[in-house]
Design brief:
single chain, 128 residues, alpha+beta, 2 domains, five-stranded mixed sheet, three-stranded antiparallel sheet, elongated, binds iron/sulfur cluster
């Protein structure tokens, strides 16, 4: 099977043709540098994504706080990660980059805040 991918490692956006057999990459053309080859192999054999979402708050001025993982996580973990995120309730002021949940869904990545929420109303907790 041939998969068409666009390399996103740099603005050149090379069009890759990736030959896949039994879920493994066996050939790549169209890449202008080795990064494209690495990208194609990761995307086909073990795709990962940075997960962005929001979490609910309790007793804070903002009803939700935007969050993201601090590293890409396997696509296969996204559903489990979202289940964990839905259970979180933030009750303490946060700064950008504060860790909300360590090792989200066993992915090895942390869930961090991407917006500040400064009102001081209790302590940060999560309900899991
Ligand atoms: S293959 Fe290399 S040159 Fe092409 S988009 Fe990817 S990183 Fe850029």
């Amino acid at each position: 099977m041939i998969r068409k991918l666009t390399c996103i490692e740099c603005p050149a956006g090379c069009a890759l043709l990736v030959e896949v057999e039994s879920g493994k990459v066996v050939g790549i053309t169209g890449n202008n540098c080795p990064k494209g080859e690495k990208y194609a192999i990761t995307e086909v054999e073990s795709p990962v994504r940075v997960l962005t979402s929001t979490v609910l708050t309790e007793g804070l001025p903002l009803k939700t706080i935007p969050v993201r993982t601090d590293a890409p996580i396997p696509k296969a973990s996204l559903f489990k990660a979202m289940e964990e995120i839905r259970k979180i309730r933030i009750k303490k002021p946060l700064h950008v980059g504060n860790v909300i949940t360590k090792n989200l869904a066993g992915s090895g990545a942390n869930l961090i805040a991407t917006r500040e929420c400064l009102a001081d109303q209790g302590s940060a907790t999560q309900t899991i």
